[in-house]
Protein backbone atom coordinates (compact mmCIF):
# COMPACT_ATOMS: atom_id res chain seq x y z
CA UNK A 1 0.00 0.00 0.00
CA UNK A 2 1.27 3.45 -0.86
CA UNK A 3 0.83 5.86 2.00
CA UNK A 4 2.05 9.32 2.91
CA UNK A 5 3.13 9.95 6.47
CA UNK A 6 3.84 13.44 7.71
CA UNK A 7 6.85 12.97 9.96
CA UNK A 8 8.55 15.94 11.63
CA UNK A 9 6.88 18.31 9.20
CA UNK A 10 7.84 16.42 6.06
CA UNK A 11 5.56 14.32 3.88
CA UNK A 12 7.20 10.95 3.36
CA UNK A 13 5.97 8.52 0.76
CA UNK A 14 6.13 4.88 1.82
CA UNK A 15 5.14 1.56 0.36
CA UNK A 16 4.07 -0.62 3.27
CA UNK A 17 2.06 -3.72 4.00
CA UNK A 18 -1.02 -3.06 6.13
CA UNK A 19 0.64 -5.09 8.89
CA UNK A 20 3.72 -2.85 8.98
CA UNK A 21 3.93 -1.34 12.43
CA UNK A 22 4.45 2.39 12.69
CA UNK A 23 7.68 1.91 14.65
CA UNK A 24 9.16 -0.21 11.84
CA UNK A 25 7.98 2.19 9.13
CA UNK A 26 9.62 5.13 10.93
CA UNK A 27 12.88 3.27 11.48
CA UNK A 28 12.97 2.09 7.88
CA UNK A 29 13.06 5.76 6.87
CA UNK A 30 16.35 6.06 8.73
CA UNK A 31 14.76 7.73 11.75
CA UNK A 32 16.26 5.31 14.23
CA UNK A 33 15.77 7.54 17.24
CA UNK A 34 12.45 5.76 17.71
CA UNK A 35 13.56 2.62 19.53
CA UNK A 36 12.00 -0.78 19.88
CA UNK A 37 12.30 -2.40 23.28
CA UNK A 38 9.76 -4.84 24.63
CA UNK A 39 7.89 -5.36 21.37
CA UNK A 40 4.69 -5.71 23.36
CA UNK A 41 3.58 -2.13 24.21
CA UNK A 42 4.89 -2.41 27.75
CA UNK A 43 8.05 -0.28 27.80
CA UNK A 44 7.29 2.95 25.94
CA UNK A 45 10.65 3.42 24.19
CA UNK A 46 8.85 3.59 20.83
CA UNK A 47 6.61 6.49 21.94
CA UNK A 48 6.00 9.14 19.26
CA UNK A 49 3.57 12.07 19.19
CA UNK A 50 0.53 12.12 16.95
CA UNK A 51 -0.81 15.57 16.10
CA UNK A 52 1.77 17.27 18.37
CA UNK A 53 0.40 16.23 21.75
CA UNK A 54 -0.90 12.67 21.67
CA UNK A 55 1.71 10.11 22.67
CA UNK A 56 1.31 6.64 21.21
CA UNK A 57 3.40 3.50 21.35
CA UNK A 58 4.38 3.20 17.71
CA UNK A 59 4.94 -0.57 18.05
CA UNK A 60 1.21 -0.88 18.74
CA UNK A 61 -0.17 1.04 15.79
CA UNK A 62 -0.16 0.19 12.11
CA UNK A 63 1.61 2.65 9.83
CA UNK A 64 -1.48 2.79 7.60
CA UNK A 65 -3.54 4.03 10.55
CA UNK A 66 -1.16 6.95 11.05
CA UNK A 67 -1.96 8.41 7.66
CA UNK A 68 -3.52 11.85 8.00
CA UNK A 69 -1.91 12.53 11.38
CA UNK A 70 1.28 14.47 11.95
CA UNK A 71 3.98 12.40 13.61
CA UNK A 72 6.75 13.80 15.77
CA UNK A 73 9.78 11.69 16.56
CA UNK A 74 12.80 12.62 18.64
CA UNK A 75 14.54 13.81 15.48
CA UNK A 76 11.88 16.49 15.10
CA UNK A 77 12.46 18.11 18.50
CA UNK A 78 15.56 20.25 17.90
CA UNK A 79 14.90 23.33 15.79
CA UNK A 80 17.61 25.06 13.78
CA UNK A 81 20.37 23.34 15.68
CA UNK A 82 18.91 24.30 19.07
CA UNK A 83 17.89 21.55 21.41
CA UNK A 84 14.26 21.48 22.51
CA UNK A 85 13.95 22.54 26.19
CA UNK A 86 13.17 18.94 27.14
CA UNK A 87 16.35 17.73 25.40
CA UNK A 88 18.41 20.44 27.06
CA UNK A 89 16.91 19.50 30.41
CA UNK A 90 17.67 15.79 30.04
CA UNK A 91 21.24 16.81 29.16
CA UNK A 92 21.61 19.29 32.04
CA UNK A 93 20.06 17.01 34.65
CA UNK A 94 21.74 13.79 33.50
CA UNK A 95 18.29 12.36 32.86
CA UNK A 96 19.74 9.39 31.03
CA UNK A 97 22.44 6.80 31.24
CA UNK A 98 22.24 4.29 28.39
CA UNK A 99 19.77 6.51 26.54
CA UNK A 100 17.58 3.75 25.21
CA UNK A 101 14.37 4.97 26.86
CA UNK A 102 15.19 8.66 26.39
CA UNK A 103 13.38 9.47 23.12
CA UNK A 104 10.16 7.93 24.47
CA UNK A 105 10.63 9.63 27.83
CA UNK A 106 11.06 13.03 26.21
CA UNK A 107 8.07 12.71 23.92
CA UNK A 108 5.86 11.46 26.76
CA UNK A 109 7.12 14.39 28.86
CA UNK A 110 6.24 16.89 26.15
CA UNK A 111 2.73 15.45 25.98
CA UNK A 112 2.41 15.89 29.75
CA UNK A 113 3.68 19.49 29.66
CA UNK A 114 1.33 20.34 26.80
CA UNK A 115 -1.71 19.60 28.96
CA UNK A 116 -0.21 20.32 32.37
CA UNK A 117 2.48 23.02 32.11
CA UNK A 118 3.13 22.99 35.84
CA UNK A 119 3.10 19.35 36.97
CA UNK A 120 3.88 18.19 40.49
CA UNK A 121 6.48 15.47 41.01
CA UNK A 122 3.60 13.03 41.46
CA UNK A 123 2.03 14.16 38.16
CA UNK A 124 5.34 13.58 36.38
CA UNK A 125 5.88 10.13 37.85
CA UNK A 126 2.28 9.19 37.05
CA UNK A 127 2.45 10.43 33.44
CA UNK A 128 5.73 8.60 32.80
CA UNK A 129 4.70 5.35 34.47
CA UNK A 130 4.17 3.72 31.05
CA UNK A 131 7.78 4.45 30.08
CA UNK A 132 10.38 2.20 31.63
CA UNK A 133 13.96 3.17 32.46
CA UNK A 134 16.27 0.53 33.87
CA UNK A 135 19.26 2.81 34.51
CA UNK A 136 18.43 6.05 36.22
CA UNK A 137 16.00 5.19 38.97
CA UNK A 138 13.91 8.03 37.47
CA UNK A 139 15.21 10.71 39.88
CA UNK A 140 17.02 12.72 37.23
CA UNK A 141 14.29 12.16 34.68
CA UNK A 142 11.85 13.83 37.06
CA UNK A 143 14.31 16.70 37.60
CA UNK A 144 14.70 17.09 33.85
CA UNK A 145 10.94 17.35 33.33
CA UNK A 146 10.76 19.90 36.14
CA UNK A 147 13.48 21.97 34.50
CA UNK A 148 11.77 21.77 31.11
CA UNK A 149 8.46 22.81 32.69
CA UNK A 150 10.13 25.90 34.12
CA UNK A 151 11.89 26.83 30.90
CA UNK A 152 8.85 26.18 28.71
CA UNK A 153 6.60 28.05 31.17
CA UNK A 154 8.87 31.11 31.00
CA UNK A 155 8.95 30.94 27.25
CA UNK A 156 5.17 30.94 26.92
CA UNK A 157 4.94 33.79 29.46
CA UNK A 158 7.38 35.68 27.26
CA UNK A 159 5.28 35.03 24.21
CA UNK A 160 2.22 36.18 26.16
CA UNK A 161 3.70 39.52 27.06
CA UNK A 162 5.00 40.00 23.53
CA UNK A 163 1.48 39.46 22.26
CA UNK A 164 0.18 41.95 24.83
CA UNK A 165 2.56 44.60 23.52
CA UNK B 1 7.18 -9.83 16.11
CA UNK B 2 5.15 -9.00 13.03
CA UNK B 3 1.43 -9.72 12.79
CA UNK B 4 0.11 -12.03 10.12
CA UNK B 5 -0.90 -10.42 6.84
CA UNK B 6 -4.41 -9.04 6.53
CA UNK B 7 -6.58 -7.04 4.20
CA UNK B 8 -7.03 -3.49 5.44
CA UNK B 9 -10.15 -1.37 5.08
CA UNK B 10 -10.69 2.14 6.33
CA UNK B 11 -14.36 2.95 5.79
CA UNK B 12 -15.59 6.52 6.15
CA UNK B 13 -19.17 5.78 7.18
CA UNK B 14 -20.77 3.42 9.66
CA UNK B 15 -22.94 1.96 6.91
CA UNK B 16 -19.83 1.14 4.90
CA UNK B 17 -18.19 -0.41 7.97
CA UNK B 18 -21.21 -2.58 8.72
CA UNK B 19 -21.34 -3.67 5.09
CA UNK B 20 -17.66 -4.66 5.22
CA UNK B 21 -18.18 -6.62 8.43
CA UNK B 22 -21.18 -8.32 6.87
CA UNK B 23 -19.21 -9.18 3.78
CA UNK B 24 -16.29 -10.74 5.67
CA UNK B 25 -18.12 -12.15 8.68
CA UNK B 26 -16.00 -13.62 11.45
CA UNK B 27 -12.89 -13.36 9.24
CA UNK B 28 -12.97 -9.64 9.96
CA UNK B 29 -12.13 -7.76 13.15
CA UNK B 30 -12.82 -4.16 14.02
CA UNK B 31 -9.72 -2.04 14.66
CA UNK B 32 -10.39 0.83 17.06
CA UNK B 33 -7.57 1.60 19.53
CA UNK B 34 -5.87 -1.70 18.80
CA UNK B 35 -4.15 -1.75 22.17
CA UNK B 36 -5.25 -5.32 22.85
CA UNK B 37 -5.82 -6.52 19.29
CA UNK B 38 -2.44 -5.51 17.87
CA UNK B 39 -0.40 -7.20 20.64
CA UNK B 40 -2.61 -10.29 20.21
CA UNK B 41 -1.90 -10.20 16.46
CA UNK B 42 1.81 -9.79 17.09
CA UNK B 43 1.82 -12.88 19.29
CA UNK B 44 -0.29 -14.58 16.60
CA UNK B 45 -3.00 -15.22 19.16
CA UNK B 46 -5.27 -13.46 16.71
CA UNK B 47 -4.89 -13.69 12.94
CA UNK B 48 -7.83 -11.90 11.36
CA UNK B 49 -7.89 -12.01 7.57
CA UNK B 50 -9.50 -8.58 7.40
CA UNK B 51 -9.25 -5.50 9.58
CA UNK B 52 -11.90 -2.80 9.41
CA UNK B 53 -10.31 0.35 10.84
CA UNK B 54 -13.14 2.47 12.29
CA UNK B 55 -10.92 5.37 13.37
CA UNK B 56 -12.17 7.66 10.60
CA UNK B 57 -15.86 7.04 11.18
CA UNK B 58 -17.73 10.18 12.18
CA UNK B 59 -19.97 10.29 15.24
CA UNK B 60 -18.28 7.60 17.31
CA UNK B 61 -16.43 9.91 19.68
CA UNK B 62 -19.41 11.29 21.56
CA UNK B 63 -19.01 11.41 25.31
CA UNK B 64 -22.17 12.98 26.63
CA UNK B 65 -25.20 12.40 28.82
CA UNK B 66 -28.53 11.74 27.23
CA UNK B 67 -31.69 10.22 28.64
CA UNK B 68 -30.06 9.42 31.98
CA UNK B 69 -27.15 7.61 30.36
CA UNK B 70 -23.54 8.54 29.71
CA UNK B 71 -22.96 7.67 26.06
CA UNK B 72 -19.42 6.55 25.34
CA UNK B 73 -18.81 6.18 21.61
CA UNK B 74 -16.61 3.44 20.20
CA UNK B 75 -13.80 5.90 19.49
CA UNK B 76 -13.71 7.49 22.94
CA UNK B 77 -10.19 6.91 24.22
CA UNK B 78 -9.47 6.05 27.83
CA UNK B 79 -7.78 9.46 28.16
CA UNK B 80 -10.96 11.22 26.98
CA UNK B 81 -12.54 9.81 30.13
CA UNK B 82 -9.46 10.33 32.30
CA UNK B 83 -9.12 14.01 31.36
CA UNK B 84 -12.84 14.86 31.46
CA UNK B 85 -13.41 16.91 34.62
CA UNK B 86 -17.18 16.33 34.62
CA UNK B 87 -16.75 12.58 34.59
CA UNK B 88 -13.94 12.69 37.12
CA UNK B 89 -16.05 14.63 39.61
CA UNK B 90 -19.34 12.75 39.24
CA UNK B 91 -18.58 9.20 38.14
CA UNK B 92 -16.52 7.87 41.04
CA UNK B 93 -16.16 4.32 39.74
CA UNK B 94 -15.42 5.27 36.15
CA UNK B 95 -12.95 7.91 37.32
CA UNK B 96 -11.06 5.36 39.43
CA UNK B 97 -10.89 2.91 36.54
CA UNK B 98 -9.77 5.55 34.04
CA UNK B 99 -6.57 6.14 36.00
CA UNK B 100 -5.47 2.51 36.21
CA UNK B 101 -6.32 0.98 32.83
CA UNK B 102 -3.12 -0.28 31.15
CA UNK B 103 -0.60 2.59 31.36
CA UNK B 104 -0.83 6.34 30.67
CA UNK B 105 0.46 6.12 27.09
CA UNK B 106 -1.68 3.13 26.12
CA UNK B 107 -4.71 5.04 27.40
CA UNK B 108 -4.27 7.69 24.71
CA UNK B 109 -5.13 5.10 22.10
CA UNK B 110 -7.15 2.42 23.88
CA UNK B 111 -10.93 2.73 23.94
CA UNK B 112 -13.57 1.88 26.54
CA UNK B 113 -15.81 0.09 24.06
CA UNK B 114 -12.88 -1.82 22.56
CA UNK B 115 -11.93 -3.08 25.98
CA UNK B 116 -15.48 -4.35 26.56
CA UNK B 117 -15.46 -6.05 23.15
CA UNK B 118 -12.10 -7.69 23.86
CA UNK B 119 -13.58 -9.09 27.10
CA UNK B 120 -10.24 -10.03 28.56
CA UNK B 121 -10.68 -12.07 31.77
CA UNK B 122 -8.54 -9.41 33.48
CA UNK B 123 -10.12 -6.37 31.86
CA UNK B 124 -10.88 -3.33 33.99
CA UNK B 125 -13.80 -1.83 32.07
CA UNK B 126 -15.74 -5.11 32.08
CA UNK B 127 -15.87 -5.18 35.88
CA UNK B 128 -16.80 -1.49 35.97
CA UNK B 129 -19.53 -2.04 33.39
CA UNK B 130 -20.99 -4.88 35.47
CA UNK B 131 -20.96 -2.82 38.66
CA UNK B 132 -22.57 0.19 37.01
CA UNK B 133 -25.02 -1.88 34.94
CA UNK B 134 -23.88 -0.56 31.60
CA UNK B 135 -25.29 -1.39 28.18
CA UNK B 136 -23.64 -1.86 24.82
CA UNK B 137 -25.18 -0.60 21.60
CA UNK B 138 -24.53 -2.88 18.65
CA UNK B 139 -25.05 -2.04 15.00
CA UNK B 140 -25.50 -4.71 12.38
CA UNK B 141 -27.15 -5.45 9.05
CA UNK B 142 -30.52 -5.78 10.81
CA UNK B 143 -30.20 -2.40 12.54
CA UNK B 144 -29.33 -1.44 16.08
CA UNK B 145 -29.84 -3.29 19.34
CA UNK B 146 -28.93 -2.57 22.93
CA UNK B 147 -27.60 -5.31 25.13
CA UNK B 148 -27.30 -5.37 28.92
CA UNK B 149 -23.68 -5.88 29.94
CA UNK B 150 -24.44 -9.23 31.62
CA UNK B 151 -25.70 -10.61 28.33
CA UNK B 152 -22.94 -8.92 26.34
CA UNK B 153 -20.03 -10.51 28.24
CA UNK B 154 -20.44 -14.15 27.21
CA UNK B 155 -17.11 -15.77 28.02
CA UNK B 156 -13.35 -15.21 27.88
CA UNK B 157 -12.66 -13.03 24.85
CA UNK B 158 -16.21 -13.66 23.67
CA UNK B 159 -19.14 -11.27 23.52
CA UNK B 160 -22.63 -11.44 22.10
CA UNK B 161 -21.57 -9.40 19.05
CA UNK B 162 -22.75 -11.44 16.09
CA UNK B 163 -21.34 -11.94 12.64
CA UNK B 164 -21.21 -8.68 10.72
CA UNK B 165 -21.92 -6.51 13.78
CA UNK B 166 -20.04 -3.61 15.35
CA UNK B 167 -20.30 -2.28 18.90
CA UNK B 168 -20.80 1.44 18.48
CA UNK B 169 -21.38 2.70 22.01
CA UNK B 170 -21.37 1.84 25.70
CA UNK B 171 -23.93 3.44 28.01
CA UNK B 172 -23.42 3.96 31.71
CA UNK B 173 -26.30 5.13 33.93
CA UNK B 174 -25.76 8.68 35.16
CA UNK B 175 -25.12 8.47 38.92
CA UNK B 176 -27.61 10.27 41.14
CA UNK B 177 -26.58 12.49 44.06
CA UNK B 178 -26.51 9.58 46.52
CA UNK B 179 -24.58 7.24 44.22
CA UNK B 180 -20.88 6.57 44.42
CA UNK B 181 -18.45 3.81 43.64
CA UNK B 182 -14.84 2.72 43.67
CA UNK B 183 -12.37 0.54 41.81
CA UNK B 184 -9.80 -1.40 43.79
CA UNK B 185 -7.02 -3.05 41.81
CA UNK B 186 -3.87 -4.89 42.75
CA UNK B 187 -1.21 -4.93 40.05
CA UNK B 188 2.48 -5.77 40.20
CA UNK B 189 3.39 -2.71 38.18
CA UNK B 190 1.69 -0.09 36.05
CA UNK B 191 0.58 -1.65 32.78
CA UNK B 192 0.51 -5.23 34.03
CA UNK B 193 -2.70 -7.22 34.11
CA UNK B 194 -4.55 -6.99 37.39
CA UNK B 195 -3.66 -9.60 39.97
CA UNK B 196 -7.24 -9.08 41.10
CA UNK B 197 -9.64 -6.14 41.04
CA UNK B 198 -13.12 -5.19 42.20
CA UNK B 199 -15.55 -2.56 40.96
CA UNK B 200 -18.43 -1.41 43.12
CA UNK B 201 -21.15 1.14 42.75
CA UNK B 202 -23.95 1.83 45.21
CA UNK B 203 -26.85 4.16 45.73
CA UNK B 204 -28.20 5.08 49.15
CA UNK B 205 -31.76 5.96 50.05
CA UNK B 206 -32.42 9.22 51.87
CA UNK B 207 -32.40 7.38 55.20
CA UNK B 208 -29.06 5.72 54.46
CA UNK B 209 -30.09 2.28 53.25
CA UNK B 210 -28.53 0.68 50.22
CA UNK B 211 -31.05 1.13 47.46
CA UNK B 212 -29.07 -0.38 44.62
CA UNK B 213 -25.61 -1.90 44.41
CA UNK B 214 -23.41 -3.40 41.71
CA UNK B 215 -20.30 -5.46 42.33
CA UNK B 216 -17.98 -6.76 39.61
CA UNK B 217 -14.70 -8.62 40.03
CA UNK B 218 -12.06 -9.23 37.39
CA UNK B 219 -8.90 -11.31 36.92
CA UNK B 220 -10.26 -13.94 39.29
CA UNK B 221 -12.13 -16.19 36.85
CA UNK B 222 -12.42 -16.98 33.16
CA UNK B 223 -14.34 -13.74 32.78
CA UNK B 224 -15.33 -10.73 34.84
CA UNK B 225 -18.04 -11.77 37.26
CA UNK B 226 -21.00 -10.10 38.90
CA UNK B 227 -21.11 -10.85 42.62
CA UNK B 228 -24.88 -11.20 42.55
CA UNK B 229 -25.24 -12.84 45.95
CA UNK B 230 -23.20 -10.07 47.57
CA UNK B 231 -25.44 -7.49 45.92
CA UNK B 232 -28.51 -9.31 47.20
CA UNK B 233 -27.22 -9.30 50.78
CA UNK B 234 -26.66 -5.54 50.69
CA UNK B 235 -29.75 -4.36 48.86
CA UNK B 236 -32.27 -2.66 51.13
CA UNK B 237 -29.98 -2.84 54.17
CA UNK B 238 -28.27 -0.26 56.35
CA UNK B 239 -24.56 -0.75 55.69
CA UNK B 240 -22.54 -2.24 58.54
CA UNK B 241 -19.06 -3.73 58.75
CA UNK B 242 -20.52 -7.20 59.26
CA UNK B 243 -22.77 -6.88 56.24
CA UNK B 244 -19.88 -5.73 54.05
CA UNK B 245 -17.77 -8.60 55.31
CA UNK B 246 -20.53 -11.05 54.37
CA UNK B 247 -21.03 -9.51 50.93
CA UNK B 248 -17.28 -9.58 50.25
CA UNK B 249 -17.17 -13.27 51.20
CA UNK B 250 -19.51 -13.91 48.29
CA UNK B 251 -16.82 -12.69 45.88
CA UNK B 252 -14.38 -15.30 47.21
CA UNK B 253 -17.06 -17.99 46.85
CA UNK B 254 -17.52 -17.42 43.12
CA UNK B 255 -13.88 -16.61 42.29
CA UNK B 256 -12.07 -19.37 40.43
CA UNK B 257 -8.72 -17.81 39.56
CA UNK B 258 -5.80 -19.28 37.68
CA UNK B 259 -2.57 -19.35 39.65
CA UNK B 260 0.31 -17.57 37.90
CA UNK B 261 3.32 -15.40 38.69
CA UNK B 262 0.96 -12.80 40.15
CA UNK B 263 -0.33 -15.10 42.86
CA UNK B 264 -1.73 -18.45 43.88
CA UNK B 265 -5.32 -19.48 43.51
CA UNK B 266 -5.88 -19.01 47.25
CA UNK B 267 -4.28 -15.58 47.28
CA UNK B 268 -6.25 -14.25 44.34
CA UNK B 269 -9.50 -15.65 45.70
CA UNK B 270 -8.86 -13.94 49.00
CA UNK B 271 -7.97 -10.70 47.22
CA UNK B 272 -11.35 -10.77 45.48
CA UNK B 273 -12.89 -10.71 48.96
CA UNK B 274 -10.55 -8.05 50.31
CA UNK B 275 -10.94 -5.74 47.30
CA UNK B 276 -14.75 -5.93 47.28
CA UNK B 277 -14.71 -5.04 50.98
CA UNK B 278 -12.34 -2.13 50.44
CA UNK B 279 -14.33 -0.90 47.46
CA UNK B 280 -17.60 -0.90 49.39
CA UNK B 281 -16.03 0.95 52.31
CA UNK B 282 -14.45 3.51 50.00
CA UNK B 283 -17.67 4.07 48.05
CA UNK B 284 -19.62 4.53 51.29
CA UNK B 285 -16.92 6.88 52.57
CA UNK B 286 -17.34 8.98 49.46
CA UNK B 287 -21.01 9.29 50.36
CA UNK B 288 -20.06 10.44 53.84
CA UNK B 289 -20.76 7.10 55.54
CA UNK B 290 -17.93 6.07 57.86
CA UNK B 291 -18.07 2.56 59.22
Structural write-up:
The complex is a heterodimer of chains A (165) and B (291). By secondary structure, chain A is an alpha+beta fold. Chain A has two domains: 2-76, Ubiquitin-like (UB roll) (Roll); 85-157, [2Fe-2S]-binding domain (DNA polymerase, domain 1, Orthogonal Bundle), CATH 1.10.150.120. Helices cover 38% and strands 14% of the residues of chain A. Chain A has five helices and five strands; from the N terminus they run ββαβββαααα. Chain A has a five-stranded mixed beta sheet with strand order 2-1-5-3-4, sandwiched between helices. In chain A, strand 1 and strand 2 form a beta hairpin. In chain A, helix 2 runs antiparallel to helix 5 (139-164). The model of chain A is unreliable at 160-165 (pLDDT under 50). In chain B, the strands form four sheets. In chain B, strands 4-5-10-6-7 form a five-stranded antiparallel beta sheet. Chain B has a four-stranded antiparallel beta sheet with strand order 11-12-13-14, sandwiched between helices. Helix content of chain B is 33%, strand content 26%. Chain B folds into three domains: 7-53, 2-Layer Sandwich (Uridine Diphospho-n-acetylenolpyruvylglucosamine Reductase, domain 2), CATH 3.30.43; 63-173, Uridine Diphospho-n-acetylenolpyruvylglucosamine Reductase, domain 3; 179-285, Enolase-like, domain 1. Chain B has helices at 14-24, 37-42, 78-82, 85-90, 92-98, 112-118, 124-131, 149-152, 228-234, 241-254, 265-286; strands at residues 7-9, 28-31, 50-53, 63-66, 69-73, 135-140, 143-148, 153-155, 158-159, 166-173, 179-187, 194-204, 210-218, 225-226. By secondary structure, chain B is α+β, with helices and mostly antiparallel strands.
Amino acid sequence: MEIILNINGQDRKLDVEPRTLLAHAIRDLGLTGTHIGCDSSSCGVCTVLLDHNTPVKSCTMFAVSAEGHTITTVEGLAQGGNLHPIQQAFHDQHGLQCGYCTPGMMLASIALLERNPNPSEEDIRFALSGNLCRCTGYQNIVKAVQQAAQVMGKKSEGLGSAADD
Amino acid sequence: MIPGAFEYHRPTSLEEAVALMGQHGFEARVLAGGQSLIPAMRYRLAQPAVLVDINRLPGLNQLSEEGGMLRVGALVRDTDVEFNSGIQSRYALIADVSRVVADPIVRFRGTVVGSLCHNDPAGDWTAAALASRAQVVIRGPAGERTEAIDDFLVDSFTTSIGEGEIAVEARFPVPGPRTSGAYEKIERKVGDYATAAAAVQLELTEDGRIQEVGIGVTAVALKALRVAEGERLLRGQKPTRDLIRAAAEEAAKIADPNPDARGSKEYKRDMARVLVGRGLIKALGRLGVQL
